Amino acid sequence: MSLIALIVLPALAYPAVSLPHDNRFLPSDLARLADVAEPEFAPDGQTLVYTVSTANPAEDKAQSDLWRVGFDGGGRTQLTHTPDSSESRPQWSADGRQIAFLSDQKLKKEKEKENAITQVWTIPAQGGSARRLTAFADGVEDFVWSPDGKRLAVIALDPEFPTGTPKPKNPPPIVTERYQFKEDGADYLGSRRKHLYLLDIASGEVQQLTSGAHDEQLPAWSPDGQLIAYVSKRGNDPDRHLNFDLYVIEPRAGASERQVTTFPGSDLDPYWETRPAWSPDSTRIAYLQSGEDKWIYYAPWQLAVVDVATGQATIPAPIDRCFYKPRWSADGKSVYALIEQSLVTHLSRIDLADGKVTELTHGDRFDYDLDVAANDRIVVLGGDDHHPYEISALEGDGLRALGKHNEWLAQKQLAEVEKIGFKNDDGDTIEGMLVKPVGYQSGKRYPTLLRLHGGPVYEYSHEFMADWQVYAAHGYAVVALNPRGSSGKGFDFAKEIYADWGNKDVQDVLAGVDHVIKMGIADPERLGIGGWSYGSILTNAVIARDARFKAAVSGAGASNMYAMYGHDQYIREYELELGTPWNNRKLYDQASYPFLHADRIKTPTLFQCAEKDFNVPCLGAEQMYQALRSLNVPTQLVIYPGENHGLTVPSYLRDRLERNLAWYDKYLKP
């Protein structure tokens, strides 16, 4: 059967969702949200550049542009206007006159039929015409500008075809001998690797600095211009471990690279979205260090600082929480970083002399990024339950907004969000959020949706969740729990589900349902459940053990781990946590409980997946759909064409949310 035959067309799949015609948050509002990201200070600390992503309805795709704003909040200006392409990773030149960035726009002379390829461009800081700097055959993945503004350090993939070789009419066969042979967003992995190159801007000359059967990522140029730092995994087979290390190399052809970190575990895994941070005097690098490979993503990653000359690394503040995105103070005596706690992530300052941690942002909020200027000015990118990410200046104990890109939300009637907590049977405190339906009346019970997060080592926090607001506007209470296995509460709490998925976390989920029923809010006869990724895996585990849920939505999940071994991108993680199927049948049986016991599922379930998802491929949803169809349990399968694990097409995002609503309505509001 063809893939397209399995897709239910939006016009025929579900009845029109009936929502109030007032100022509540609707599925159509998803396309109005602006996603603010990547703030970066100009060298003088007076101005910032950042990106804003919005939906382009005409092209039905997400599209990002560059914006500029003064630290005083004045002069907010859109720098690029490219509805057919996107700009990202903005960086200022040393003199503050130019901004370099990545863009997939085409030159006017390029043919329309040619695919857009991401290259490095520049634009005057005050706006104007952009100019392309690079012409790598397969584009640029990442780059960093040299401190003198004369060169770029570039990360690019080995070219697929030798220079001057015409492309064949059809793609050549995919041939691989790699242990990890696929990756979401990168498709199948062969012998081509990502390497570090040096580009002279004036001449256009390109020199390759690294080579070999490994990848280089996250380049960072030292402030004195003498070294480029980057991250790489080495060894006989880098695919088989997570031992990332920091390397440095002089920016010249023929230079020898030098390994800086030696910890036998991950030093700055690119998954953490954090770059190496050089100290102002170019002698140290701040980065993130995890636990040994065995613990994969369960061990909180710590702030580490390494002396580049000696390789001596220290953990200045060894606390049992995750750190993110370190930045140095101007005097080099402290590091600013984001630290995750239960339900929140805040900006903190870490004193390197004594390890003292001082929280700088407070309250129910989620800080996602930051930047620090040479004069110690600080901006934070963050939000809360009712506000998507925006950029704010840190002033004393408060934040001052530098303009808002989602001001229209102030006219919307948003649902209230409150923290809840309870004890599980083992005495652990389980926390989460309760979103009360818009128009909530005390003493009245409501149909209730339990939403489960992905990861598994992740947590729901006080950040704006558009789908929760849509459900609440539609009359649902929403319960978002952080069961054992979640982040934000330390290593021991996270590893409670290590090699034991769908057991203790299921217990916590069911205890959470009992809690909101006792609160008098949830209607025990109208309970729904759902999630995406591990949230879907956990959804399947819950409905296989408890029949109280009248409707479920399971997106991008899996329940037959025998089948996922070698089919998704996590071969290394499977073997580290579960071992191999032929040696550890018991663990694989436990992890595959919902599929092996699908006959115990009575809950009508909507399964969803993305066609090109190598993270959690459609096989997982298809098998569970087929099992319930065989058992005559009401079910439906929806596949989103061409999408990876995280959906990006605006019409698909709206479609998914409207389908979820229609499915829940059908069984919870008959």
CATH architectural designation of one domain = 3-Layer(aba) Sandwich
Uncertain segments of ≥5 residues (pLDDT<50)?
A: 1-19
**Strand order, largest beta sheet:** 32-33-35-34-36-37-38-39
Give the C-alpha Rg: 25 Å
Distance between the termini: 33 Å
Give the proportion of residues in helices: 10-25%
Question: What is the total tally of β strands?
Answer: 39
Explained architecture:
One of its GO terms (molecular function) is aminopeptidase activity. InterPro entries: 6-blade_b-propeller_TolB-like, AB_hydrolase_fold, Peptidase_S9_cat, WD40. Keywords: Aminopeptidase, Hydrolase, Protease, Serine protease. The chain has 670 residues and is of the alpha+beta class. It has a domain at 3-26 and 410-668: Alpha/Beta hydrolase fold, catalytic domain (Rossmann fold, 3-Layer(aba) Sandwich). The protein is 15% helix and 33% strand. It has twelve helices and 39 strands. An eight-stranded mixed beta sheet has the order 32-33-35-34-36-37-38-39, sandwiched between helices. Strands 19, 20, 21, 22 and 23 form a five-stranded antiparallel beta sheet that branches. The protein has a four-stranded antiparallel beta sheet with strand order 1-2-3-4, with no helix packed on it. The longest helix has 19 residues, at 650-668. The radius of gyration is 25 Å and the shape is globular. Mean pLDDT is 94; it is low at 1-19.
